[in-house]
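Propose amino acids for all 174 sites.
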């Protein structure tokens, strides 16, 4: 049988070995962490990490896009089409799209006005015709939409807030 000092030494050794066992996964994690840090340092040295790496990657993407765009432009110009031709075609397409979209919207607005006059105020065919004809003339002779909106506000105290999803027509607070 061992003396008391020997038993204490054995208990400390046993406690240390148990503590070492619990620290073992942390040491392995530290090795993994060390490998990750080494990879990050290598990437930083090669300019592939961090903010500068991100900027380099973005510059490379931008450079590639510009090269593709330039190649497409050269191909198009080779066929006799210039950048001015493309701009003109885009503008014509925009105007045609606006024209095609505007007509149904205006029809919808006129129909809404006529239905409101009929349902809310009992307008018949003749009065509704005279009213919508007057609306059409106001729209045709207006220089721009803000002129009409200003006139509505001035004469009636109503404000048109078309950016609002609901309550687009509001009474101006005095």
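Proposal:
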């Amino acid at each position: 049988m061992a003396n008391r000092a020997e038993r204490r030494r054995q208990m400390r050794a046993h406690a240390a070995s148990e503590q070492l066992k619990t620290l073992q996964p942390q040491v392995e994690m530290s090795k993994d962490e060390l490998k990750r840090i080494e990879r990050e340092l290598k990437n930083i040295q090669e300019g592939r990490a961090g903010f500068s790496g991100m900027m380099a990657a973005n510059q490379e993407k931008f450079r590639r896009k510009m090269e593709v765009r330039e190649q497409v432009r050269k191909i198009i110009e080779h066929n006799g089409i210039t950048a001015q031709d493309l701009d003109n075609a885009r503008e014509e397409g925009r105007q045609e799209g606006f024209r095609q979209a505007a007509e149904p919207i205006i029809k919808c607005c006129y129909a809404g006005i006529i239905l409101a006059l009929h349902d809310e105020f009992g307008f018949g065919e003749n009065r509704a015709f005279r009213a919508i004809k007057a609306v059409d003339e106001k729209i045709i002779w207006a220089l721009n939409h803000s002129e009409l909106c200003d006139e509505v506000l001035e004469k009636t105290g109503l404000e048109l807030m078309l950016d609002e999803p609901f309550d687009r027509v509001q009474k101006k607070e005095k």
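The two ends are 104 Å apart (CA to CA). The chain has a mean pLDDT of 81.
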